[in-house]
Amino acid sequence: MPRYAPNRVPTAVKKRYFELLHQGYRGAAAARYVGVSTSCGSLWFIDAGSMIVPDPGPISPRFLTQDDRIAIADGLHTGQSVKRIAASIGKSFQSVYREIKRNSKPDGRYNPWWAHNQALLRRKRPKEEKIRAGEQLRTFVREKLTEKWSPQQISRHLAREHAHDTSTRACPETIYRALFAGLLGRRDAKLRTGRTRRKKQRRGVPTLNKIKNMTLIHQRPVEVNDRKSPGHWEGDLIIGRGQGSAIGTLVERTTRYVQLIHLPGGWKAPQVRNALIAQTAHIPPQMRRTLTWDQGRELTLHQDIEALTGFRIYFCDPHSPWQRGTNENMNGLLRQYFPKGTDLSVHTAQDLRAVARQLNRRPRIVLGDKTPVEAMRDCLTGPLTR
Known about the structure:
The chain is an alpha/beta fold. The protein has 3 domains: 5-123, no CATH class; 129-199, no CATH class; 217-381, Ribonuclease H-like superfamily/Ribonuclease H (Nucleotidyltransferase, domain 5), CATH 3.30.420. The protein has 16 helices and 5 strands. Helix 13 (302-309) links the parallel strand 4 (290-293) and strand 5 (312-315). Helix 2 packs across helix 3, helix 4 packs antiparallel against helix 5 (82-89) and helix 10 crosses helix 11 (172-180).
């Protein structure tokens, strides 16, 4: 028999042969049923990896089926492009590219039965969840969650401390799954946001207001955008129940250092002006360069603030919170301490300093896992130019 004779048989015959094997037929009987020799069927079986892996069927429509893989092999054999093959089976061309790269044989050929067997073998995961099985890992993750670490921060810490021991490491998704499944406890271990299930983020829309003599963000120095030069801040208010109380938030763009502004007398323009002037006086002059705010009327007296603090104030476009992305992110973190719909006037200046201290001592991936305090200290001890 010529060497490549088995591959000249129509694909439908091969497909029926492997279907019979899955049904429990012996190789010789399956070969006779489809009309080929026993040796021909044996070559097919060997080329497919010499195994029959039970196929329970796809667990999700996004997974490729055996028929999809046969169509991919036929398309490659006839010289079709990957995009055309993908369109014929209703998948993205990226999925087909990954499939060919991942499940081709060591010699580079794509055999659909070999590929399907390999996919089924990888799909089988009989092992127990890592966090369920590891008491030490579960205890550590629970402790860090109670200290308000995020799953990403916990995962990076484990990767650094246990670089050579994969049993005591966990990716963020593993921690999220364990948390939402209740493996870490319902009462003690919580996300900083308090969420118990996955939820899309929602952002508020700032109110359009007219403020005289505003300098818009488009006139802000270009050096602010690259975050290499410290001293550029973003500010906002988080509002309490019934809009009767507020807390001011300032975040330095380079170091992510946060300062909270106590507003015991309300949050109208005069109170915000006085509080900003008094509570930023301790910031070194070289760290008071620009301040970016939204177009809230609480900053109507921005010219007074500029004159008495040294900040150059710039205003974002209406309905554009992403132009203060650092501050928006920080406000989201702060809501774990100051939930929406609560009275913020009950928090003292000492309370605000304690919250800011905790946030400033938390490692941030954007800072290379430094804390904002460490990053700010580096800026203050290094060369700074106004």
